[in-house]
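Exercise 7. Given the encoded structure of a 517-residue chain, write a plausible sequence.
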């Protein structure tokens, strides 16, 4: 085989081993110099109608028959921990950190090595052949040195077979010396692993808080939709009553028309409320990682968990102190300080001179047979030992000193961030306690207002029956009643979300249930 043929085959093998490049799917390729349009008329499931045509046949929202899933907080948390994509990513990070610990520990693994070479020397008519090899086992030591045992072998035209046994030890005394210095990277990796696990737990707490608040947003949207449906039913009842009162001559046709107009007007509120409900439902489905088909409302969520408001007298200072000791972001900064302390100790050692002692012991055997050259030793064989010292020191040692200085400054930054976070936690807890108290007061006021507006509405209905009130009076009392009921619903939502925010600010989740993943 010629050299050119061999080179060609090697190049072909290298090219065939390369990974195939990723190609963009054909449906994504387009002419970027133009913009295509879209006609939504072609995508309509029904024949498009003008506003005039549609207004004649305007109707209530049709209830789509769909599968329903009932959710309470316990079920919500279970689905979140199982399905959320952000959490699935967070679960992987501690596994990577644990793998990095094993990687660092592996630096003390023994290394087996084998080396062999053949040399051919030709000077004019003189030729010499020599083959040598070495089998070795090197054991790194946690003290910074190493032990090495090797079996060399040499075969040439003059010495026949030369074998031996070599043992060597090397130990630094200043730089890189000591178990604490050489285990520093392992200790840092272990702290990093704990930090990642703390980060995963923090992500779980944060996401559960986000999902639970999204749940109460959806609950409120669902309740508000029910309020508007009830308002529409009241408007229809009033319309029927107005028609009856017109027949009896108690009121005029104008009251009947106003009542009918009010019935139509309440449909807009239902449409808006249903749109909001669907938006909050999709948000909840996205957090629970339901598939894209479920986004089209093929599965309807029923919020079964009901608010449980109760008065609380909380000491914000006590809660903020608890939060400081319980918050995982504070714990992460403590771990950062620990990592920085380990790094500073290591870098401080690196500013020392390199001073090490070395000792080698060699036992060599000569023989005209291969096996004797490796296994038979006698008094005439060569024995030698070598002891040595090594000293090394940069003239100014600026690089090592500056690295140490940078690490010390980074530790100072982390300490300042810790103090800053402590102040932020105190401020955050005090603010959330105020928000909780404010939500409670709003809840009580809205509840009282709703009760009063209900009494006003009933009074107006009786007045209409007696001819002392008009349809407009009833419409206004219905609007006030619905508005106060909506404010009460929103106050319930805000109160539940404030409790969630306070639990998160304290470094945990709401409730006594234990969460495991």
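Solution.
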């Amino acid at each position: 085989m010629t050299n050119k043929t061999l080179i060609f085959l090697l190049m072909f093998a290298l090219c065939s081993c390369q990974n195939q490049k990723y190609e963009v799917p054909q449906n994504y390729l387009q002419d970027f110099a133009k913009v295509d349009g879209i006609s939504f008329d072609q995508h309509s499931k029904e024949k498009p109608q003008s506003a005039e045509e549609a207004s004649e046949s305007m109707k209530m929202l049709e209830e789509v028959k769909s599968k329903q899933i009932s959710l309470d907080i316990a079920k919500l948390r279970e689905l979140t921990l199982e399905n959320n994509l952000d959490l699935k990513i967070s679960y992987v990070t501690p596994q990577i950190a644990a793998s990095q610990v094993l990687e660092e520990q592996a630096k003390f693994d023994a290394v087996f090595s084998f080396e062999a070479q053949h040399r051919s020397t030709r000077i004019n008519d003189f030729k010499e052949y020599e083959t040598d090899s070495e089998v070795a086992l090197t054991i790194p030591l946690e003290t910074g040195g190493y032990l090495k045992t090797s079996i060399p072998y040499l075969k040439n035209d003059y010495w026949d077979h030369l074998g031996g046994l070599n043992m060597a030890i090397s130990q630094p005394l200043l730089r890189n010396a000591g178990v604490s210095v050489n285990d520093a990277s392992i200790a840092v990796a272990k702290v990093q692993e704990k930090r990642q696990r703390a980060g995963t737990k923090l992500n779980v707490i944060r996401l559960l808080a986000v999902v639970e608040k999204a749940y109460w947003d959806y609950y409120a949207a669902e309740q508000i939709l029910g309020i508007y449906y009830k308002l529409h039913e009241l408007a229809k009842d009033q319309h029927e009553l107005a028609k009856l009162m017109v027949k009896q001559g108690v009121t005029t046709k104008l009251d009947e028309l106003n009542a009918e107009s009010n019935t139509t007007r309440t449909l807009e509120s239902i449409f808006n409320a249903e749109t909001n409900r669907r938006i909050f439902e999709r948000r909840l489905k996205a957090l629970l990682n339901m598939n894209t088909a479920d986004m089209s409302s093929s599965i309807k969520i029923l919020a079964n968990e009901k608010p449980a408001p109760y008065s609380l007298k909380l000491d914000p200072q006590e809660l903020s102190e608890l939060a400081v000791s319980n918050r995982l972001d504070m714990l992460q900064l403590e771990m950062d300080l620990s990592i920085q302390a380990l790094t500073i100790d290591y870098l401080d050692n690196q500013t020392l001179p390199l001073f090490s002692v070395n000792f080698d012991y060699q036992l060599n055997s000569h023989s005209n047979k291969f096996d004797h050259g490796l296994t038979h030793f006698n008094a005439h064989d060569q024995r030698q030992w070598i002891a040595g010292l090594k000293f090394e020191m940069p003239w100014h040692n600026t690089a090592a000193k500056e690295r140490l200085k940078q690490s010390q400054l980074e530790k100072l930054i982390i300490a300042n961030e810790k103090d800053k976070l402590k102040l932020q936690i105190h401020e955050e807890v005090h603010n959330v306690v105020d928000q909780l108290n404010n939500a409670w007061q709003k809840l009580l006021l809205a509840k009282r207002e709703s009760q009063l507006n209900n009494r006003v509405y009933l009074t107006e209905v009786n007045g209409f029956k007696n001819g002392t009130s008009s349809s407009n009076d009833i419409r206004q009392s219905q609007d006030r009643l619905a508005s106060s009921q909506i404010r009460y619903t929103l106050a319930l939502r805000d109160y539940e979300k404030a409790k969630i925010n306070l639990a998160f600010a304290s470094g945990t989740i709401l409730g006594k249930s234990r969460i495991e993943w």
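Remark. The mean pLDDT is 82. Students should compare their own answers with the one above.
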